């Protein structure tokens, strides 16, 4: 089942990193986090958030903030979203999540 993001809505997505021993790994153990929403037919991203620009840390968690301004600019449709980081050697590890996402249009009443 695909995740759903509604236009004109605010989201805070909290992402723990779980080690091979099933314990949380500190977000400080990774660099260059990025959250992407991708067109599944072309693989091109139309939204990219990075540390300090939509991504922050809270303890051991990475936090993705999708503001109302960001979601209002998203095009309705079926896409893919993913979150990935690099290890301290600068190498990407497999995405912490990569899944289908549906952007739903939200209609507003006239003022």
What are the key terms here?
single chain, 111 residues, Immunoglobulin-like, two-stranded antiparallel ribbon, 1 helix, 10 strands
TL;DR?
This protein has 111 residues and is mainly beta. The chain is built from one helix and ten strands; from the N terminus they run ββββββββαββ.
Give your account of this protein's structure.
The radius of gyration is 15 Å and the shape is globular. The longest helix is centred in the middle third of the chain and has 5 residues, at 68-72. An eight-stranded mixed sheet has the order 1-10-9-5-6-7-8-2. Strands 3-4 form a two-stranded antiparallel sheet. The chain has one helix and ten strands; from the N terminus they run E-E-E-E-E-E-E-E-H-E-E. The mean pLDDT is 94. It is 5% helix and 53% strand. It has one domain (3-104): Macroglobulin (MG2) domain (Immunoglobulin-like, Sandwich). The chain is mainly beta and 111 residues long. Strand 5 (30-38) and strand 6 (45-51) form a beta hairpin.
Per-chain topology:
Blueprint (H helix, E strand, L loop, with lengths): L2 E4 L4 E5 L1 E2 L5 E2 L4 E9 L6 E7 L2 E5 L2 E6 L1 H5 L4 E11 L9 E8 L7
Parallel strand pairs: 1-10, 6-7
Antiparallel strand pairs: 2-8, 3-4, 5-6, 5-9, 7-8, 9-10
Under CATH, the homologous superfamily reads Macroglobulin (MG2) domain
How helix-rich are the residues, as a percent range? Answer: under 10%
- Describe the sheet with the most strands: 8 strands, mixed
Overall shape: it is: globular
Using the CA coordinates, give the radius of gyration.
Answer: 15 Å
Secondary-structure element order, as H and E?
A: EEEEEEEEHEE
**Highest CATH level, the class:** Mainly Beta
Trace the largest sheet across and list its strands.
1-10-9-5-6-7-8-2
Give me the secondary-structure category: mainly beta
